[in-house]
Design a protein that fits this description.
alpha+beta, 2 domains, two-stranded parallel sheet
Length: about 325
Amino acid sequence: MVRPFKKDVDFLRHRRVFFIISIVLMVAALVALPVKGLNFGIEFVGGSSIDFKNTGEISIDEMRTAFEDAGVQGAIVQTSTDVRTGEAGFIVGISTTDAQEASTYKDAVSAALGIDSTTAEAMTVGPGWGAEVTRTSLIAFLVALALIIIYIAIRFEYKMGVVAVTTLVHDLLIIVGVYAIVGREVTPNVVAALLTIMGYSLYDTVVVFHRINDNLSTTSRHSFMTVANHSVNQVLMRTINTTLSTMIPVLAMLFFGGETLKDFAFAMSIGLILGSYSSIAIASPLYALWKQREPKFRKLATKYGEGLDEFTVAEQLGD
């Protein structure tokens, strides 16, 4: 039985505010993608990455100028920190797919800036391998989405599956938009983080859906909207605790890890926050709005209303 808790926070009453926030974020993402574009790593587009270590006080502008003087235009320069020694360095992406040419640029820039070229490393990736990474990443996303719909449709109902995937698309679109806005490089580690986020966001959403199902089986005097809102309140602390405990190691990787870990942690940190938000602010109200259109729940909504006030009504009726 859903008990008439008057202290429930009425999240679903404010669903329009949540929807407006999400629409604004998604529109910003959709604008940023064609305007600024994504900064794909060499693993996707092909090219070379040169890792300079122990660069001292050399600035980003000095590093970029050194590459321009060596004949390289459009070099993507990022700072790095050696996790073992704490020494400053740079990771520079250039478009050439010729390993010998990349090594020549490495030596020329090292000489110009007074860096020991033997400590620098150049890695080259051909465009064919990058295209394969892109193709397999897209397949992984599509397969994951299809399996999510199938699993939830079998375990619960197809409406839950559709809403869950819609919520995932919401989360992923905003994350990709953030990458476009800040210009951070998209690497295979980011793709791995996005797939991990899909699992986390799905878990959070399914927990809410499962609680809604349980509550529906034991009550008949509340509207679907109220049952959904009460279910969100019941799992709220679990969501907060799970998110906070997961964020601790993610933030540790983001602030203290190497570049590879930071790529993964940056996407994860955004995704954890969005996943928790969307399960409450997007998935639950979307599902409740859809279900409340069904004849059974439309009658209950007409009889009892949608807000927390109906708990008082139910209490008076002795539910």
